[in-house]
């Protein structure tokens, strides 16, 4: 039964709401008593309808925007939270609003959207993104002053005054220390190790773990990294005569060394570019630019490894080595993690994520608050 001006409906039952063709119908059992106030039932019904309509518009807008541009939303970005189907991209706010509502979106509409999305994702994964060369050139110009921390204190700068074998070990140690740590802090720790002659495997194994931990403090996880340094030094002495492994697999077998570091060390230490070094800056910026996506989808990548694989499908190999310091410095100075300086960014007309940071959850909440709507 479809209801209109019922009196005090909420005093008697919990109506079930069905959303059909974007219109809310309030279904009330036949035996309801209609003897109370009209106004509250009217107000409540109106509010629920507006909220549901707004939510639907939000979702339609989001989905339409994604179809057009394949854009990642900065504020939705999560490295660890998996997102799947179109339905699963409905945000938590919408889910909460509709928790008492049974959604009945027409199945044929969703299936058409999915087909379109699949087609688009195939085209995205098949070739380079539009305007990537212009974007890259724009970033190069913004980075021409070389004023980012990575330019003077990045891992690849470690031990640059040393002979090749010692330098490789210094780059390996610097990479190990760099995770979860700012470049300046890593650089300071490497300098203190260097002053004590502790950028060599044999010197490290002769030094107390606690001494190493004190020297590298305050790098992130300094105690664990001191332990890793001792173990790495042992392995390098035992297996590689004090040098470092010359393969990705060999490097990944060392404690505390992940893909990001392994590719960097191969590039810098052995001048052997086997892959792109993707850290958190490269990962974030590539997603903001719409340069990467998960295989077979238009979704953002969830991990730096997914970003590396996606980026390597289209980025020319001669860009694999320079792209890391270029984007790391860009991320440190302009395209920052929390508040990217889109107003100062020369590629903001080409970037699908430009100025999206302004659409914070707080401002969205203000836009959709009942008092603003009424
Ligand atoms: S426009 Fe903004 S989000 Fe896009 S690359 Fe520039 S700073 Fe980053």
TrEMBL record:
- Where does this protein chiefly localize? plastid
Q: Which CDD domains match?
A: ENDO3c
The keyword Iron-sulfur appears for this protein: yes
What's the domain of life for this entry? Eukaryota
GO biological process entries = base-excision repair, AP site formation; nucleotide-excision repair
> What PROSITE patterns would the database entry show?
ENDONUCLEASE_III_1 (PS00764), ENDONUCLEASE_III_2 (PS01155)
Does the keyword field hold 4Fe-4S? yes
Q: Return the SUPFAM superfamilies for the record.
A: DNA-glycosylase (SSF48150)
Q: Which cofactor does it need?
A: [4Fe-4S] cluster
GO cellular component entries: chloroplast nucleoid; nucleus
Q: What is its EC number?
A: 3.2.2.-, 4.2.99.18
Keyword set for this entry?
Answer: 4Fe-4S, DNA damage, DNA repair, Glycosidase, Hydrolase, Iron, Iron-sulfur, Lyase, Metal-binding, Transit peptide
Q: Which residues form the HhH-GPD domain?
A: 177-333
User: A Pfam family in this protein?
Assistant: HhH-GPD
Q: GO: which molecular function terms?
A: 4 iron, 4 sulfur cluster binding; class I DNA-(apurinic or apyrimidinic site) endonuclease activity; DNA binding; metal ion binding; oxidized pyrimidine nucleobase lesion DNA N-glycosylase activity
Annotated catalysed reactions: 2'-deoxyribonucleotide-(2'-deoxyribose 5'-phosphate)-2'-deoxyribonucleotide-DNA = a 3'-end 2'-deoxyribonucleotide-(2,3-dehydro-2,3-deoxyribose 5'-phosphate)-DNA + a 5'-end 5'-phospho-2'-deoxyribonucleoside-DNA + H(+)
Q: Where in the cell is it found?
A: Plastid, Chloroplast stroma, Chloroplast nucleoid
Q: What Gene3D superfamilies does UniProt report for this protein, alphabetically?
A: Helix-hairpin-Helix base-excision DNA repair enzymes (C-terminal), Hypothetical protein, domain 2
Give the protein's biological function: Bifunctional DNA N-glycosylase with associated apurinic/apyrimidinic (AP) lyase function that catalyzes the first step in base excision repair (BER), the primary repair pathway for the repair of oxidative DNA damage. The DNA N-glycosylase activity releases the damaged DNA base from DNA by cleaving the N-glycosidic bond, leaving an AP site. The AP lyase activity cleaves the phosphodiester bond 3' to the AP site by a beta-elimination. Primarily recognizes and repairs oxidative base damage of pyrimidines.
Q: Which family does it belong to?
A: Belongs to the Nth/MutY family.
Entry-linked HAMAP family:
Endonuclease_III_Nth (MF_03183)
What this protein is called in its record is Endonuclease III homolog
- Gene of this entry: NTH1
């Amino acid at each position: 039964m479809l209801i209109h001006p019922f009196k005090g409906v909420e005093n008697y039952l919990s109506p079930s709401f069905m959303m059909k063709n974007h219109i809310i119908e309030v279904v009330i059992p036949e035996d309801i008593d209609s003897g109370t106030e009209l106004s509250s039932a009217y107000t409540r019904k109106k509010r629920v309808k507006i909220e549901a309509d707004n939510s639907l518009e939000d979702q339609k807008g989001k989905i339409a925007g994604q179809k057009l541009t394949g854009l990642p939303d900065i504020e939705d970005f999560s490295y660890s939270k998996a997102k799947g189907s179109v339905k699963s991209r409905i945000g938590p706010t919408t889910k909460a609003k509709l928790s008492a509502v049974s959604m009945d979106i027409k199945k044929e509409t969703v299936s058409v959207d999915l087909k379109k999305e699949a087609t688009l994702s195939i085209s995205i994964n098949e070739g380079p993104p539009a305007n990537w060369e212009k974007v890259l050139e724009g970033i190069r110009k913004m980075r021409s002053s070389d004023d980012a921390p990575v330019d003077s204190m990045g891992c690849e700068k470690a031990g640059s005054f040393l002979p090749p074998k010692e330098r490789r070990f210094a780059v390996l140690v610097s990479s190990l220390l760099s995770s979860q740590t700012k470049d300046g802090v890593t650089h300071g720790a490497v300098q203190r190790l260097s002053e004590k002659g502790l950028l060599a495997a044999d010197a490290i194994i002769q030094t107390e773990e606690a001494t190493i931990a004190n020297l590298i403090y305050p790098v992130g996880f300094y105690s664990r990294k001191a332990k890793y340094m001792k173990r790495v030094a042992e392995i390098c002495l035992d297996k590689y005569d004090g040098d470092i492994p010359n393969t990705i697999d060999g490097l990944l077998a060392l404690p505390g060394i992940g893909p990001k570091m392994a590719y960097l060390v191969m590039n810098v230490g052995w001048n052997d570019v086997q892959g792109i070094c993707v850290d958190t800056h490269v990962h974030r910026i590539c997603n903001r630019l719409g340069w990467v996506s998960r295989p077979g989808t238009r979704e953002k990548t969830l991990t730096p490894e997914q970003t590396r694989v996606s980026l390597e499908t289209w980025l020319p190999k001669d860009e694999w080595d320079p792209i890391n310091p270029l984007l790391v410095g860009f991320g440190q100075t302009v395209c920052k993690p929390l508040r990217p300086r889109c107003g100062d960014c020369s590629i903001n007309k080409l970037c699908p994520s430009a100025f999206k940071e302004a659409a914070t959850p707080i401002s969205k909440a203000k836009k959709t608050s009942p008092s603003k709507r009424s």
